[in-house]
Specification:
By secondary structure, the chain is of the alpha/beta class. The protein has helices at residues 35-46, 51-58, 62-82, 109-112, and strands at 8-10, 18-19, 30-33, 85-88, 93-95. The strands form 2 sheets. Strands 2-4-3 form a 3-stranded mixed β-sheet. The chain has a two-stranded parallel sheet with strand order 1-5. It is globular and about 45 Å long.
Length: 117
């Protein structure tokens, strides 16, 4: 029996959940990127986290981060090469509630509000 999958902590849902190429013919295929895959791309490629730091933030093992990240990069590459649409949905995740003092994500609702408000 496989081990149960741990919930992966995600800062916030993406602002846009669907991306389609312009020009040429309409894409016939849509690639699904899960929310936790999106979060690994955001943390590692955009925020500059190491895989270890990403794992600590998402509350999963570094090896799991590596697997999720590799899968996400493959999906993005396939979408670019094939001219496919990308949709972000699903996955096994838990949204950040902003109550953690050590979160430091800056992206969840609680951390976006001005301190004096």
């Amino acid at each position: 029996m496989p081990r149960p999958q741990k919930c992966r902590k995600v800062c916030s849902l993406p602002k846009l959940t669907e991306f389609r190429p312009i020009g040429g013919k309409a894409p016939g295929k849509t690639i699904i990127l899960t929310v936790d895959e999106y979060e690994t791309i955001r943390l590692i490629d955009r925020e500059g986290f190491s895989q270890e730091a990403c794992g600590e933030y998402m509350r999963i093992a570094r090896t799991t981060v590596q697997q999720v990240y590799t899968t996400a990069r493959k999906k993005l590459a396939d979408a670019l090469v094939e001219g496919a649409a990308i949709r972000i949905e699903g996955g096994h995740y838990e949204l950040c509630d902003g109550k953690e003092s050590d979160c430091g994500c800056g992206g969840c609702e609680a951390h976006r509000k001005p301190a004096d408000a």
